[in-house]
Each structure stands twice: as C-alpha cells, then as structure tokens.
C-alpha cells in the first residue's frame, strides 16, 4: 500500500492529498463551516463530530486502514483549510478488486470542476497504484450534482438500491454507479 501518495493540483487552487495525522482541527472547521450544506447528504452526526478531538481520535484509525490496504483517505485543501474529502473504502482484493468511492466538497467550490478533477485523479490512483478493477459509488436519487460528477468521470449507472443508506436521519434510496478501471486510458 503506497503510504507516500503525491499531492495532486486541482482547479481553483485546491490540492488533493492523503489525510495527515494532524488534520483534525482543519476537518472539524470544514464540517462546521459547511454543516448546513452537508447535512442533507450525510448521516446524522453527533455534536462531537464538529470538534477537532473527534477527528483527531479517528484519523489514526483511518491511516491504519490505509496502511493495511483497506482504504485510502484523501482530503482536499486550499491553503491551510480542508475543503473536501474523497475516500476509497471497503477495498476488496482477490477476484473482486473493488472499492467504494465517497466524496464531499465545500459549498463555495461546487460547480467549478474541482470534484470532477479529484474523482478522476483518485480513479487513476485506484487503477495505477492500487491495481483495482472497479470503483462503485452511490448517490441519493435527487443528488444530480454528484451524479454529474460521476457521469463526467466515466461512471455508469447500474441500478437503484432501495433504502440503501441512512442519510439525514432516514433510510433513503440511492442510485448505484460503477467504473471499470482497466479499460481506462491514462489522462493526457
């Protein structure tokens, strides 16, 4: 598992990089800053989630999962601020070679190509560095912005999962997407 993942420059002065051990305060600040924007799209969060100590306690676990090859936690940064996350989770090897893709972006950066570039960079990483065959993602049925990101980055819709995840306090249906990686060509 690569533990020295080089940062990637993205549009709008944003950088994609591996989560760092000391990112707790910046993560908490990002979630507080965009709480209203993110709440409809994420699981209900306890009050402690918005504090640095919550993230500081979980980052070592996330980095251990990365070192063990089970996930890759990225952050999107602009200067010293965290402005988003992209995570490859539930990495399965063997005959599946698959991971789940999840992401979010700060409200002031949406619609500027940042997440499209980030998802593309992570897909290339998943193929070239992790040797994965497939990525899968799920969005709420009404999350058209996220679906546009997946469409632009080569994901195909493969179905609908009823009551797939508990989001914003209730079980909600999701659109399922996949991207087969080996057939991809490296970006120009």
UniProtKB/TrEMBL annotation:
Any one Pfam family match given in the protein's UniProt record, by short name: Acetyltransf_3
Family according to the record: Belongs to the acetyltransferase family. RimJ subfamily.
Keyword Ribosomal protein among record annotations: yes
Keyword Chloroplast included in the entry's annotation: no
Top-rank lineage group of the source organism: Bacteria
Protein name (Swiss-Prot/TrEMBL): [SSU ribosomal protein S5P]-alanine acetyltransferase
Any one GO cellular component localisation term in the record: ribosome
Record-linked PANTHER family: [RIBOSOMAL PROTEIN US5]-ALANINE N-ACETYLTRANSFERASE, GNAT FAMILY, PUTATIVE (AFU_ORTHOLOGUE AFUA_3G00765)-RELATED-RELATED
Source organism (scientific name): Isoptericola halotolerans
Domain N-acetyltransferase positions: 14-182
Entry keyword set: Acyltransferase, Ribonucleoprotein, Ribosomal protein, Transferase
């Amino acid at each position: 598992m690569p533990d020295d993942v080089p940062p990637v420059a993205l549009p709008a002065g944003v950088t994609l990089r591996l989560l760092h051990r000391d990112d707790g305060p910046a993560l908490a600040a990002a979630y507080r800053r965009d709480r209203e924007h993110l709440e409809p799209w994420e699981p209900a969060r306890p009050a402690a989630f918005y504090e640095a100590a919550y993230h500081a306690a979980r980052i070592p676990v996330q980095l251990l999962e990365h070192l063990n090859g089970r996930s890759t936690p990225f952050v999107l940064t602009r200067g010293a601020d965290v402005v988003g996350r992209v995570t490859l989770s539930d990495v399965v090897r063997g005959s599946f070679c698959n991971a789940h893709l999840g992401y979010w972006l700060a409200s002031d950066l949406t619609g500027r190509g940042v997440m499209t570039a980030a998802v593309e960079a992570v897909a290339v990483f998943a193929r070239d560095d992790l040797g994965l065959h497939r990525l899968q993602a799920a969005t709420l049925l009404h999350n058209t912005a996220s679906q546009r990101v997946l469409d632009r980055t080569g994901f195909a819709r493969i179905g609908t999962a009823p009551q797939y995840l508990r989001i914003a306090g209730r079980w909600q249906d999701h659109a399922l997407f996949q991207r087969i990686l080996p057939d991809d060509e490296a970006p120009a």
